[in-house]
Design brief:
The chain has 440 residues and is of the alpha/beta class. It contains 18 helices and 11 strands. α17 crosses α18. The longest helix has 17 residues.
């Protein structure tokens, strides 16, 4: 097994000991970042794979490469009742991580100074592993993936990511420049960061490296972290979708989904997805998920991270998208509100909108940049019972009929079939953007 060389490991350790990452103030809470809570919830990835809603109580979650513990705090908030275990090679980072979770009175957490390769020495099997902004530091990706797989429960899930070789190519060029200048022979400190800043500012504005990578955010005290993590990042390396799938195969892990999967829809890159050129229309439906993601990456490399979920290979499941469910399926379906929406703020705003008969701005609570922006009030009213507990689909239909007893066009009593179809389409739309989860 190939390990990170001791020299490189020491450089990485020194960099994070002298500049613990991320530099997020202790008092900054992730409660105001519902999308981060959503993608760090075991419920989200488990539902995507199994179309079932899981309870996070008593689950054991690992934050591999936890840094200063901000993601550990997010994991604690996103997975109520779970135990959080954080590991990192930087003792200074671990010290700050402990302080952060103690500050928020998260008492079901523990931290260890430990490299990812040594995870099997922990006496734990994990339900979920978060390995964020770490995997790309390994010359051999399978080393880290196999170490995580060794401590992953059979139905557990790993979330990890790689720097994109295509999107980040200009920063890799910059790192070569500053390596040639001798700035990365040892742990970069203030002098090296100042040289980077002076060099970039001295270049003419039209010089490609400066035009593409440099901006005012790199100046001042706050810019030091950005310089370190982009221009002087020890061990940084870029990968492609093909590399990612190759590493998963080499580790005998099964791809589940990209974490920001809605932004990897190949057809969304075309002006008229329903009217593709004939060759594409015939060939695209038959290509694999790996090939679809590769095409997205080559056509539109905008993602800094190739962010993915994976796990042990699972028995084949006969899972249909909810949009393809039959009438019989829907009749026995159970509807859950996304856990990240079960907050007092969401509840108060929803009830206020219903009382004041105004649209409910649902996107503010989960996906502010995509999907359904707001709900017309009669549809928003259907969500109120879900605040307390999951509801059978037919109970939601009955609620719709109670709220709309008369057809506004015919003045006749609302037909059950009409109410059923309206609610079904509402739930399909809400489920597609993560606001609800529906299980059989």
């Amino acid at each position: 097994m190939v390990n990170i060389s001791s020299e490189l490991l020491e450089k990485i350790r020194q960099q994070f000991d002298s500049a613990p990452y991320p530099r997020i103030p202790l008092e900054k809470s992730p409660k105001a970042q519902p999308h981060l809570l959503y993608i760090h919830s075991l419920v989200t990835s488990y539902y995507l794979r199994n179309q079932k809603v899981i309870d996070t109580k008593d689950k054991v979650i690992l934050d591999a490469g936890c840094g200063t513990g901000y993601k550990s705090l997010i994991l604690a908030g996103a997975n109520p009742g779970a135990k959080i275990v954080g590991v990192d090679i930087s003792a200074e980072s671990i010290k700050l991580a402990r302080q952060r979770l103690e500050y928020y009175e998260v008492d079901n957490a523990e931290f260890h100074v430990l490299p990812v390769e040594d995870l099997p020495t922990l006496d734990y099997q994990f339900d979920y592993i978060n390995c964020d902004e770490v995997l790309y530091l390994f010359p051999d990706l399978t080393v880290a993936l196999q170490a995580m797989k060794a401590v992953l429960k059979p139905d557990g899930i790993i979330r990890s990511n790689l720097h994109s070789a295509l999107q980040r190519v200009h920063f890799f060029r910059a790192q070569k420049v500053f390596t040639m200048m001798g700035l990365m022979e040892s742990n970069p400190e203030d002098m090296e960061m100042e040289i980077v800043k002076e060099t970039m500012k001295a270049l003419k504005d039209h010089v490609q490296l400066k035009a593409i990578t440099w901006n005012g955010d790199y100046e001042g005290e706050k810019g030091k972290e950005r310089i370190l993590m982009n221009y002087l990042f020890q061990g940084d390396k870029g990968y492609t979708i093909a590399d990612m799938f190759s590493a998963l195969r080499g580790s005998d892990l099964e791809f589940i989904s990209m974490v920001n999967w809605r932004q990897w829809e190949l057809l969304d890159l075309f002006q008229e997805p329903d009217n593709l050129p004939s060759f594409l229309a015939m060939s695209l439906p038959d290509i694999s998920i790996e090939e679809r993601l590769q095409l997205c990456e080559l056509l539109h490399p905008v993602h800094r991270l190739l962010d993915f979920w994976c796990g042990h290979p699972q028995p084949a499941q006969d899972i249909l998208p909810v949009a393809e469910w039959t009438y019989s399926d829907w009749r026995v379906a159970r509807v859950h509100l996304c856990p990240q929406l079960k907050t007092s703020k969401f509840k108060e705003e929803l009830i206020a909108c219903v009382k004041e008969i105004r649209p409910f701005p649902i996107s503010q609570y989960l996906s502010p940049t995509e999907g359904i922006k707001e709900l017309e009030i009669s549809r928003a009213s259907c969500l109120i019972p879900l605040l307390e507990q999951p509801q059978p689909m037919m109970s939601v239909v009955e609620r719709w009929k109670q709220l709309h007893p008369v057809d506004p066009i015919t003045s006749e009593p609302t037909e059950s079939e009409v109410a059923f179809n309206i609610v079904k389409q509402l739930l399909i739309n809400l489920e597609s953007f993560g606001y609800i989860m529906v299980e059989l």
